[in-house]
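Re: How this chain folds, sequence and tokenised backbone to follow
Notation: Tokens come from a learned vocabulary of local backbone shapes, not from coordinates.
Start of record: The labelled sequence and token lines come straight after this line.
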Amino acid sequence: MPCKYTIILLPSDLLVKSEDSNCFGSANEFTCESLPVAIVSEASRPPDTLSQIRRRWLCGCNCPAFFVAAPAPGRYKVPRRTNLMNKPIRVIAYGLGAIGRSAAVLALSKSNMQLVGAVDRDPKLAGQDLGPVLGLNRQLGLKIADKPAVLFSQVQADAVIHCTSSSFAVVYDQMVEIVQAGLHCVTSCEEALFPRYRHPELAAKLDDLCLKHGRAIVGTGVNPGFVIDTLALAATGACQKVNSIRVIRVVDASTRREALQRKVGVGISEAQFKKLAKEQKIRHVGLTESLVFLADALGWKVDDVNETIGPILATKPITTQYFTAKPGQVAGVHQIATCRQAGRDVLRLELQMYADAVNPRDEIVIDGVPPLKLVLEGGVAGDLATPALLVNSLPLLIDARPGLHTMRTLGLPRIMP
């Protein structure tokens, strides 16, 4: 039977107090009947970082125990687990690009959410009412701020929907500011799906900060975040054995927003594409993060992680709402991420994202017992699904243990009313 307790490991002389009760005492004697928490003291010196101890196991019931270690005596808040439907989640929209605006509009439609603020670093938006910026025919009475810290200090909020950059290194300081303000955060940052792959030190520091403040962060979206990784992982639950996984996502970029078409190079020359790809200025970010996320979630120790990128050239004139590509010019991007285990290919993720794509689809093929093949005809519409995943993940995030999460540790989101 799974353990009903969260295990928190603390130095025996540390004084702890629960966030929403009067229970208080030393780590040796702390208990609280109203919270699913057990405190176990640590006689020896705690680890230097909080995250080092979280991967240990304590209880003997085969459930992952959650550990927190404090670097020095002091007070540590034990976050209270909330009822998902207990009260509306007060949300701040951070970043008002196409995805950020769509997510904000969706949050407005949810009965369990309340949009209480918005911030964007574009000075042209500062001071404007959020309603018209979101394309609504009404004022919302919410003025867009351009200084996040000021907004956080003025507004009572629970969480942030964050949509500013694909780079974890770029958004790291923004995340720190959010957590220090006592806010949870769901972000569309692609590298935040599995940040410890490219930025292990920053990821560990942010995880420690989340633990210190009792808050949670997760990176998600349609890809990375769902189709090419989380959905594939969920499908393995129907298998007794998995030998390898192959996923292919074919996206018709003609149907997508201007920023994405520009990101995959629609209308530029092949030479320009190769130059920009070498500088990592043109590509879909997050494919390798999806690969290592899957390997980690499956417990596979892999090597020879590799990602290739090349152009898909137009074979006929293509005109989208934003760009034109002549025959021989770039229609989009073709990326493949692979890894090996014991000398054989075990994971292969392929992305074809180009204008006028043939047979757009999402296809997951699992070589296992039993073998599985899932095909989503037409593919999942990213400009609609990414805002949905951001919004629908928020209730799970509010209820999650503190820390820097992945979609595996957070759990599967579902549509909320």
In short: The chain has three domains: 6-78, 89-218+386-410, 230-380.
